[in-house]
Amino acid sequence: MSHFNASSKWDKALRIITKGKEVDEIDIGTLSVKTLEAIDTALNAFDGGIVIDEKGYILVYTENYAKLAGIPKEGKLGMHVLDVFPKSRMLEVVTTGQPIYIDLWETGVDTVFCSRYPIRSEGRIVGAIAVSVFRYFDEAHRFAERLQSMGQELQYYKSQLQKLSGAKYSFDKIIGNSPAIMSAKYNAQPMVKTRTPVLILGETGTGKELFAHAIHQAGPRSDRPFIRVNCASIPENLAESELFGYEEGAFSGARKGGKPGKFELAHGGSIFLDEINELPYHVQAKLLRVLQEGEIDHVGGTNLTHIDVKVISATSADLNQLIKERLFREDLYYRINAFQLTVPPLRERIEDIPLFCEYFVDNSNREFDTAIFKVDAEVCNLFARYHWPGNVRELRNVLQRSSLIAGCGNISLNHLPPEFISKIETTDTVQVNELESVIQQAEKGQILKVLRSVGWNRNKAAQMLGINRTQLYRKMKKYDLLSSQK
Prior knowledge:
By secondary structure, the chain is of the alpha/beta class.
């Protein structure tokens, strides 16, 4: 065998091989015996390999490769590859210059998968190299299983992320068939398909967030993130970094490596800014720029990041009044108000109260293990006369508490929370006369039930009823309960 001169290009190619990365070809010049021995050692550290020159003569034949082939290494260097491996495809690689990836090689001892690569020097093919990838079918099978498992894991985490950052409600899940709510659903349809910002208005507890979910869910971004931000819950000094992210060292206590903001997390999807009126004035200016330019910059950063986000805002405040008071930017108002949707209050959709009663009672039965059958008609009539300042959220709270008080059977007037009964007021004298006896009957029944449950212990009864001992005494006197028997 002749001697060769070492090539610096081989070292780089060898480093690529030993890291296990896929390469299309190996680039070497002429090699010395010392270099060939080094290649032999490097290849043998894995499952082995074989190197031939441009004419097919073996330059490197590792011990591990020899064991795989079942053909001893001794005397094989300098032999033609076809004399040792009659079915070898290495000359095919030399001739075509094209690599052969993960090819099945039946050695007579084991079934092996190997890859073959052309070796070039100064643009000319000067040989080829073959390396073992998998020694056994079962090893390849295990590898495939690991890949499949990793794919399933990735899909699982993607689905979990979708659950955490996705919309939960569709228009079908919004309860009600009253004209008011059906009109709101109809008016929301044009807002679904475009990236245009949406502003949802409505009193507290009307279900503005449900509509935000539904608008995202019904649109082309439904499989992308839906990020919810309660602007009222973010401390003023953290609002900018929470929304737009920050760089490492941007401020005292900043996380190492920085942190992405909510807008980055929503990229490709939608962001819901609830109670947008609570954003600090200086943050409103930055939000306006984001809406206009589609770019954000981290706190403490200098680079701009492009984002594609549909912005859905909501508020129960009068933004026009806040603009007059210079608490909300007028230019931002016009930007977020391209589409406007108003969610009706519960008092304008009284027809939906029975549906809510059924829904919330079912939820309470599942959550609290109660056994409520239904809400009595007298209770529904009372609900229909109430003005519901807390809207659907208040109704849910009342029904949950009533379910816990009743435990099973029907929810009657006696099961309504005392503080709810005490809030029922109206300026209509006729309604007052109609409700007075109903309210007094319900309040008396509830007080009597609580007193009996605590063995007429007034301190415990007052605590359970949410009033003080003096108020309880007055009510007992009013309803002639002071002389009642235990």
